[in-house]
Amino acid sequence: MQEFKTTLIMVGIMLAYAVPGFILIKTKLVKSDSISSFSKLLMFVCQPALTLYSFNKADFTKQLGINLLIFLAIITVAQLIFIGVFYLIFRKKMEQVKYRITTVATTLSNCSFLGVPLLEAIFPDSSNVAVYSMMYFLSMSLLGWTLVSAIITRDKKYISIKKILINPATISIAVSLPFFFTGFKIGAQNGQLLGQIGNMIDILGKMTTPLCMLVLGMRLATIKIKSVFDNWIQYFAVAINQIVFPLCVLGLLTLLKVDTELRSCMFIMCACPVAAVIQNYAEILGEGQGAAANMVLLGTMSSIVTLPLMALLI
Hints:
It is built from 15 helices and no strands. By secondary structure, it is mainly α.
């Protein structure tokens, strides 16, 4: 029951962060064409800082390293299967951007922007849970900058080795790994300068949750609120993403008899609402912004019910 209460409070706080963004657009203090700039700040500055923060907290062991590789493999295969299934289901309707957004919205989860603070709240005594979230985000980013971008834009140019190797997620993890493997911490214990750098990384990393919700609130202010609730496809994407997908992954993890912490972390992250990065990709790519915002908003609002209930299963 404690997991239920913790999750309910965290989702409620997350939703509250969207309110200032909504007000900024409605009062015209921020113009709607600036939303994509906030998305770029989130994706290219705050998210890499969150990656550094997460790896900096974890303590490397051989078993943890093995678990992270297992985690990365399982979640990547699971996401590919679900995206592939729904791409086949909607393949004849791909000329409509809402179906392209739905294809990826059925699978991608808000695993880092909400996942990291949520996991830290549910498992306060574990320093490793945040780094599991980064494995999830790495997998999602590898797919996001390549396959997901190609689906949204219908342009195969995004399927390339360059896009796989050079993106904010892989670069930030490549920077983090040497510190992680050697156990070197960017913090006050290694000098005043590193202490200040560590504080800067922590602050920027923890900005991801409020900033992603600010962007969402801004986008909500540019659309008719009724549109969030008046299309069946949005309910379909949310139900698959926040109920069917996590339950299927939990079943797979139970059959594989993986480490308990790994299983709990992956399940909670799979149960997180439709990924806010879907909207960020849409903003950056310039296609499907409205459809993405509707699904992310509906998913985030409904997660105040679905996510605490799912948390009971761990």
